[in-house]
What does this fold into?
Amino acid sequence: MKNFKPRSITLYASIVLALVVGIISFLFNKNLWSALVVGISTLVLSYFIFLYIIEQFIYRRIKLIYKSIHSLKLGKEFKDALGERVSTDPLGEVEKEVADWSVDKKDELEDLKKLEKFRREFLANLSHEFKTPLFSIQGYLHTLLDGALEDKNVNRKFLDKSASSVERLVNLVADLEEISKLEKGEIKINYEEFDVNKLTHDVMNELEDKAHKNGIHFHIKKGTDKPWIVSADKEKIRQVVTNLIDNSIKYGKANGETVVGFYDMDENILIEVTDTGIGINEEHLPRLFERFYRVDKSRSRDAGGTGLGLAIVKHIIEAHHQVIHVRSTANVGSTFGFTLKKFEAHS
Ligand code: ADP
It folds into this structure.
Protein backbone atom coordinates (compact mmCIF):
# COMPACT_ATOMS: atom_id res chain seq x y z
CA MET A 1 0.00 0.00 0.00
CA LYS A 2 3.01 2.27 0.59
CA ASN A 3 3.31 3.84 -2.87
CA PHE A 4 -0.34 3.67 -3.95
CA LYS A 5 -1.72 6.78 -5.59
CA PRO A 6 -5.39 7.82 -5.29
CA ARG A 7 -6.31 6.65 -8.79
CA SER A 8 -4.91 3.14 -8.31
CA ILE A 9 -6.53 2.84 -4.87
CA THR A 10 -9.86 3.87 -6.43
CA LEU A 11 -9.44 1.43 -9.32
CA TYR A 12 -8.69 -1.53 -7.03
CA ALA A 13 -11.61 -0.69 -4.72
CA SER A 14 -13.97 -0.33 -7.72
CA ILE A 15 -12.83 -3.67 -9.21
CA VAL A 16 -13.48 -5.43 -5.91
CA LEU A 17 -16.93 -3.82 -5.61
CA ALA A 18 -17.78 -4.57 -9.26
CA LEU A 19 -16.78 -8.22 -8.80
CA VAL A 20 -18.91 -8.57 -5.66
CA VAL A 21 -21.92 -6.87 -7.27
CA GLY A 22 -21.47 -8.90 -10.51
CA ILE A 23 -21.30 -12.20 -8.60
CA ILE A 24 -24.38 -11.33 -6.53
CA SER A 25 -26.27 -10.34 -9.68
CA PHE A 26 -25.27 -13.65 -11.36
CA LEU A 27 -26.39 -15.66 -8.32
CA PHE A 28 -29.80 -13.96 -8.40
CA ASN A 29 -30.47 -13.86 -12.18
CA LYS A 30 -28.30 -16.78 -13.39
CA ASN A 31 -27.59 -14.59 -16.42
CA LEU A 32 -23.93 -14.06 -17.30
CA TRP A 33 -24.49 -11.13 -19.68
CA SER A 34 -26.66 -9.16 -17.31
CA ALA A 35 -24.17 -9.86 -14.47
CA LEU A 36 -21.38 -8.57 -16.76
CA VAL A 37 -23.30 -5.36 -17.58
CA VAL A 38 -24.11 -4.78 -13.89
CA GLY A 39 -20.46 -5.43 -12.94
CA ILE A 40 -19.03 -3.06 -15.59
CA SER A 41 -21.58 -0.33 -14.74
CA THR A 42 -20.70 -0.68 -11.06
CA LEU A 43 -16.99 -0.50 -11.92
CA VAL A 44 -17.33 2.74 -13.92
CA LEU A 45 -19.74 4.39 -11.52
CA SER A 46 -17.96 3.44 -8.32
CA TYR A 47 -14.59 4.45 -9.81
CA PHE A 48 -15.76 8.04 -10.29
CA ILE A 49 -17.63 8.16 -6.98
CA PHE A 50 -14.63 6.77 -5.02
CA LEU A 51 -12.25 9.07 -6.83
CA TYR A 52 -14.43 12.05 -6.02
CA ILE A 53 -14.69 11.06 -2.34
CA ILE A 54 -10.95 10.44 -1.98
CA GLU A 55 -10.04 13.66 -3.78
CA GLN A 56 -12.61 15.72 -1.96
CA PHE A 57 -12.36 14.50 1.58
CA ILE A 58 -9.02 12.83 2.07
CA TYR A 59 -6.47 13.82 -0.49
CA ARG A 60 -7.08 17.55 -0.45
CA ARG A 61 -6.58 17.55 3.28
CA ILE A 62 -3.43 15.49 3.10
CA LYS A 63 -2.11 17.81 0.39
CA LEU A 64 -2.80 20.75 2.65
CA ILE A 65 -0.97 19.11 5.54
CA TYR A 66 1.95 18.32 3.25
CA LYS A 67 2.07 21.87 1.92
CA SER A 68 1.88 23.33 5.41
CA ILE A 69 4.67 21.15 6.77
CA HIS A 70 6.79 21.80 3.71
CA SER A 71 6.29 25.55 3.98
CA LEU A 72 6.81 25.59 7.74
CA LYS A 73 10.11 23.90 7.14
CA LEU A 74 10.95 26.63 4.66
CA GLY A 75 9.81 29.19 7.22
CA LYS A 76 6.77 30.43 5.28
CA GLU A 77 3.37 31.46 6.50
CA PHE A 78 0.49 28.99 6.44
CA LYS A 79 -1.53 31.07 3.98
CA ASP A 80 1.40 31.18 1.52
CA ALA A 81 1.43 27.40 1.63
CA LEU A 82 -1.98 27.21 0.00
CA GLY A 83 -0.73 28.62 -3.26
CA GLU A 84 2.33 26.36 -3.50
CA ARG A 85 3.23 23.62 -5.93
CA VAL A 86 2.17 20.19 -4.74
CA SER A 87 4.01 16.94 -5.19
CA THR A 88 2.49 14.20 -7.36
CA ASP A 89 2.95 11.73 -4.50
CA PRO A 90 1.82 13.69 -1.46
CA LEU A 91 1.32 10.57 0.69
CA GLY A 92 4.93 9.46 0.29
CA GLU A 93 6.20 13.00 0.66
CA VAL A 94 4.07 13.64 3.75
CA GLU A 95 5.59 10.55 5.31
CA LYS A 96 9.13 11.75 4.52
CA GLU A 97 8.45 15.36 5.48
CA VAL A 98 6.88 14.37 8.78
CA ALA A 99 9.84 12.08 9.57
CA ASP A 100 12.38 14.86 8.75
CA TRP A 101 10.28 17.39 10.56
CA SER A 102 10.10 15.33 13.73
CA VAL A 103 13.91 14.96 13.74
CA ASP A 104 14.29 18.74 13.31
CA LYS A 105 11.75 19.44 16.04
CA LYS A 106 13.45 17.01 18.40
CA ASP A 107 16.79 18.79 17.94
CA GLU A 108 15.10 22.17 18.32
CA LEU A 109 13.36 21.03 21.48
CA GLU A 110 16.63 19.78 22.93
CA ASP A 111 18.31 23.13 22.18
CA LEU A 112 15.40 24.96 23.81
CA LYS A 113 15.62 22.73 26.88
CA LYS A 114 19.36 23.42 27.13
CA LEU A 115 18.73 27.16 26.82
CA GLU A 116 16.05 27.00 29.48
CA LYS A 117 18.40 25.13 31.84
CA PHE A 118 21.11 27.67 31.09
CA ARG A 119 18.71 30.55 31.82
CA ARG A 120 17.59 29.00 35.11
CA GLU A 121 21.20 28.38 36.17
CA PHE A 122 22.16 31.90 35.16
CA LEU A 123 19.39 33.45 37.27
CA ALA A 124 20.29 31.27 40.26
CA ASN A 125 23.98 32.20 39.89
CA LEU A 126 23.16 35.84 39.49
CA SER A 127 21.09 36.09 42.66
CA HIS A 128 23.75 34.14 44.54
CA GLU A 129 26.50 36.48 43.32
CA PHE A 130 24.55 39.52 44.49
CA LYS A 131 23.38 37.95 47.72
CA THR A 132 26.81 37.26 49.20
CA PRO A 133 28.26 40.80 49.15
CA LEU A 134 24.87 42.39 49.93
CA PHE A 135 24.38 40.26 53.03
CA SER A 136 27.89 41.01 54.18
CA ILE A 137 27.35 44.79 53.76
CA GLN A 138 24.02 44.47 55.59
CA GLY A 139 25.71 42.59 58.44
CA TYR A 140 28.54 45.10 58.88
CA LEU A 141 26.21 48.13 58.72
CA HIS A 142 23.87 46.70 61.34
CA THR A 143 26.78 45.83 63.63
CA LEU A 144 28.13 49.37 63.24
CA LEU A 145 24.71 50.89 63.95
CA ASP A 146 24.26 48.65 66.98
CA GLY A 147 27.29 50.21 68.65
CA ALA A 148 30.42 49.07 66.82
CA LEU A 149 30.61 52.57 65.26
CA GLU A 150 32.00 53.89 68.53
CA ASP A 151 34.44 50.98 68.93
CA LYS A 152 37.71 52.25 67.50
CA ASN A 153 39.12 48.70 67.28
CA VAL A 154 36.59 47.51 64.67
CA ASN A 155 34.74 50.46 63.15
CA ARG A 156 37.30 51.11 60.41
CA LYS A 157 37.76 47.41 59.71
CA PHE A 158 34.01 46.90 59.24
CA LEU A 159 33.76 49.92 56.96
CA ASP A 160 36.71 48.64 54.91
CA LYS A 161 35.06 45.24 54.54
CA SER A 162 31.78 46.87 53.50
CA ALA A 163 33.63 49.00 50.96
CA SER A 164 35.29 45.92 49.44
CA SER A 165 31.89 44.18 49.14
CA VAL A 166 30.52 47.29 47.41
CA GLU A 167 33.53 47.13 45.10
CA ARG A 168 32.67 43.52 44.29
CA LEU A 169 29.09 44.50 43.44
CA VAL A 170 30.31 47.33 41.23
CA ASN A 171 32.69 44.94 39.40
CA LEU A 172 29.89 42.43 39.01
CA VAL A 173 27.50 44.98 37.51
CA ALA A 174 30.23 46.29 35.20
CA ASP A 175 31.05 42.75 33.98
CA LEU A 176 27.38 41.92 33.52
CA GLU A 177 26.83 45.06 31.51
CA GLU A 178 29.83 44.27 29.35
CA ILE A 179 28.77 40.67 28.73
CA SER A 180 25.21 41.64 27.90
CA LYS A 181 26.42 44.24 25.39
CA LEU A 182 28.77 41.68 23.83
CA GLU A 183 25.99 39.09 23.62
CA LYS A 184 23.59 41.55 22.05
CA GLY A 185 26.27 42.37 19.49
CA GLU A 186 26.10 46.03 20.55
CA ILE A 187 29.84 46.34 20.95
CA LYS A 188 31.58 47.31 17.75
CA ILE A 189 35.07 46.05 17.10
CA ASN A 190 37.25 48.99 16.09
CA TYR A 191 40.10 47.46 14.15
CA GLU A 192 43.44 49.24 14.28
CA GLU A 193 47.00 48.11 13.91
CA PHE A 194 49.15 47.90 17.02
CA ASP A 195 52.00 45.98 18.57
CA VAL A 196 50.49 43.31 20.83
CA ASN A 197 53.90 42.69 22.46
CA LYS A 198 54.10 46.36 23.52
CA LEU A 199 50.53 46.14 24.85
CA THR A 200 51.51 43.02 26.85
CA HIS A 201 54.47 44.90 28.37
CA ASP A 202 52.10 47.74 29.37
CA VAL A 203 49.69 45.28 31.04
CA MET A 204 52.60 43.57 32.82
CA ASN A 205 53.77 46.94 34.15
CA GLU A 206 50.29 47.70 35.45
CA LEU A 207 50.01 44.35 37.22
CA GLU A 208 53.62 44.28 38.43
CA ASP A 209 52.79 45.24 42.04
CA LYS A 210 50.02 42.66 42.38
CA ALA A 211 52.27 39.98 40.90
CA HIS A 212 55.10 40.96 43.23
CA LYS A 213 52.80 40.65 46.28
CA ASN A 214 51.85 37.15 45.15
CA GLY A 215 55.43 36.15 44.40
CA ILE A 216 54.89 35.84 40.66
CA HIS A 217 57.45 36.86 38.03
CA PHE A 218 56.57 37.93 34.52
CA HIS A 219 58.51 37.52 31.34
CA ILE A 220 58.13 37.25 27.58
CA LYS A 221 59.08 33.94 26.00
CA LYS A 222 62.65 33.87 24.79
CA GLY A 223 63.09 34.77 21.15
CA THR A 224 59.58 36.27 20.82
CA ASP A 225 60.18 39.64 22.53
CA LYS A 226 59.87 41.78 19.39
CA PRO A 227 57.08 43.79 17.71
CA TRP A 228 54.06 41.69 16.68
CA ILE A 229 51.74 43.92 14.72
CA VAL A 230 48.11 42.83 14.68
CA SER A 231 44.84 44.23 13.39
CA ALA A 232 42.33 44.21 16.25
CA ASP A 233 40.48 46.36 18.76
CA LYS A 234 43.34 47.52 20.99
CA GLU A 235 41.33 48.36 24.10
CA LYS A 236 39.36 45.10 23.96
CA ILE A 237 42.55 43.09 23.52
CA ARG A 238 44.05 44.98 26.46
CA GLN A 239 41.08 43.70 28.46
CA VAL A 240 41.75 40.13 27.26
CA VAL A 241 45.49 40.25 28.07
CA THR A 242 44.80 41.91 31.43
CA ASN A 243 42.27 39.25 32.33
CA LEU A 244 44.49 36.32 31.38
CA ILE A 245 47.58 37.74 33.16
CA ASP A 246 45.49 38.70 36.18
CA ASN A 247 44.13 35.13 36.36
CA SER A 248 47.69 33.80 36.19
CA ILE A 249 48.40 35.81 39.35
CA LYS A 250 45.13 34.93 41.13
CA TYR A 251 45.55 31.21 40.45
CA GLY A 252 49.34 31.21 40.60
CA LYS A 253 51.70 29.75 43.19
CA ALA A 254 54.31 31.69 45.15
CA ASN A 255 57.64 31.83 43.29
CA GLY A 256 55.81 30.96 40.15
CA GLU A 257 56.05 32.64 36.77
CA THR A 258 53.85 33.88 33.97
CA VAL A 259 55.27 33.70 30.47
CA VAL A 260 53.70 35.30 27.41
CA GLY A 261 54.78 33.93 24.02
CA PHE A 262 53.98 35.01 20.45
CA TYR A 263 53.89 32.62 17.48
CA ASP A 264 53.58 33.28 13.76
CA MET A 265 50.64 31.30 12.32
CA ASP A 266 50.64 32.48 8.71
CA GLU A 267 47.67 34.88 8.60
CA ASN A 268 47.34 35.04 12.37
CA ILE A 269 49.45 35.46 15.45
CA LEU A 270 49.00 33.11 18.38
CA ILE A 271 49.45 34.65 21.82
CA GLU A 272 49.90 32.26 24.73
CA VAL A 273 49.82 33.09 28.43
CA THR A 274 51.39 30.27 30.45
CA ASP A 275 51.55 30.05 34.23
CA THR A 276 53.00 27.66 36.78
CA GLY A 277 49.93 27.94 38.99
CA ILE A 278 47.39 25.58 40.51
CA GLY A 279 46.22 24.34 37.09
CA ILE A 280 42.77 22.99 36.22
CA ASN A 281 41.51 19.42 36.18
CA GLU A 282 40.56 18.19 32.72
CA GLU A 283 36.89 17.70 33.60
CA HIS A 284 36.47 21.48 34.10
CA LEU A 285 38.09 22.59 30.85
CA PRO A 286 35.04 22.31 28.54
CA ARG A 287 32.95 24.60 30.78
CA LEU A 288 35.65 27.08 31.77
CA PHE A 289 34.47 29.86 29.44
CA GLU A 290 30.84 29.70 30.65
CA ARG A 291 29.41 32.58 32.66
CA PHE A 292 29.97 32.10 36.40
CA TYR A 293 31.81 28.81 35.97
CA ARG A 294 34.52 28.53 38.61
CA VAL A 295 36.70 25.62 39.61
CA ASP A 296 37.32 26.76 43.17
CA LYS A 297 34.52 29.16 44.11
CA SER A 298 35.98 30.44 47.36
CA ARG A 299 39.44 31.03 45.89
CA SER A 300 37.90 32.98 43.01
CA ARG A 301 35.75 35.12 45.33
CA ASP A 302 38.60 35.73 47.76
CA ALA A 303 40.66 36.95 44.83
CA GLY A 304 37.83 39.34 43.86
CA GLY A 305 36.74 37.33 40.81
CA THR A 306 33.25 37.67 39.35
CA GLY A 307 33.37 34.40 37.39
CA LEU A 308 32.64 36.37 34.21
CA GLY A 309 36.18 37.21 33.10
CA LEU A 310 36.79 34.27 30.77
CA ALA A 311 33.25 34.48 29.34
CA ILE A 312 33.96 38.13 28.40
CA VAL A 313 37.39 37.20 27.00
CA LYS A 314 35.84 34.51 24.79
CA HIS A 315 33.16 36.90 23.51
CA ILE A 316 35.78 39.49 22.62
CA ILE A 317 37.95 36.99 20.75
CA GLU A 318 34.96 35.53 18.90
CA ALA A 319 33.77 39.02 17.97
CA HIS A 320 37.16 39.30 16.20
CA HIS A 321 36.36 35.96 14.43
CA GLN A 322 39.33 34.40 16.19
CA VAL A 323 39.68 31.49 18.61
CA ILE A 324 40.72 30.94 22.21
CA HIS A 325 41.74 27.67 23.86
CA VAL A 326 43.12 26.36 27.13
CA ARG A 327 45.49 23.56 28.09
CA SER A 328 46.06 22.80 31.71
CA THR A 329 47.34 20.22 34.18
CA ALA A 330 46.29 20.32 37.83
CA ASN A 331 49.15 21.41 40.09
CA VAL A 332 51.43 22.10 37.14
CA GLY A 333 49.96 25.11 35.38
CA SER A 334 47.79 26.42 32.57
CA THR A 335 48.18 27.90 29.11
CA PHE A 336 45.54 30.15 27.60
CA GLY A 337 46.08 30.87 23.90
CA PHE A 338 44.23 33.08 21.45
CA THR A 339 44.77 34.19 17.88
CA LEU A 340 44.67 37.65 16.30
CA LYS A 341 44.84 38.71 12.68
CA LYS A 342 48.34 39.65 11.67
CA PHE A 343 48.56 43.14 10.21
CA GLU A 344 49.79 43.00 6.61
CA ALA A 345 50.95 46.29 5.08
CA HIS A 346 48.89 45.64 1.91
CA SER A 347 45.70 44.48 3.76
P1 ADP B 1 37.06 34.54 37.99
O1 ADP B 1 36.51 35.89 38.17
O2 ADP B 1 36.49 33.52 38.93
O3 ADP B 1 38.56 34.51 37.94
P2 ADP B 1 37.15 33.74 35.21
O4 ADP B 1 36.03 33.66 34.23
O5 ADP B 1 38.29 34.65 34.88
O6 ADP B 1 36.48 34.09 36.58
O7 ADP B 1 37.71 32.29 35.40
C1 ADP B 1 36.82 31.21 35.64
C2 ADP B 1 37.48 30.14 36.49
O8 ADP B 1 38.53 29.51 35.74
C3 ADP B 1 38.16 30.68 37.73
O9 ADP B 1 37.25 30.78 38.79
C4 ADP B 1 39.22 29.62 37.99
O10 ADP B 1 38.66 28.53 38.70
C5 ADP B 1 39.58 29.13 36.58
N1 ADP B 1 40.83 29.76 36.07
C6 ADP B 1 40.91 30.82 35.25
N2 ADP B 1 42.19 31.09 34.93
C7 ADP B 1 42.94 30.18 35.60
C8 ADP B 1 44.36 29.92 35.69
N3 ADP B 1 45.25 30.67 35.04
N4 ADP B 1 44.75 28.88 36.48
C9 ADP B 1 43.86 28.11 37.12
N5 ADP B 1 42.51 28.28 37.06
C10 ADP B 1 42.07 29.31 36.32
User: Anything to note?
Assistant: The mean pLDDT is 89. The pocket of adenosine-5'-diphosphate is lined by residues 247-248, 250-251, 275, 277-280, 288, 293-296, 300, 305-311, 334 (CB under 6 Å). Strands lie at 192-195, 216-220, 229-232, 256-265, 268-275, 324-329, 333-342. Residues 73 and 101 are 7 Å apart (CA to CA).
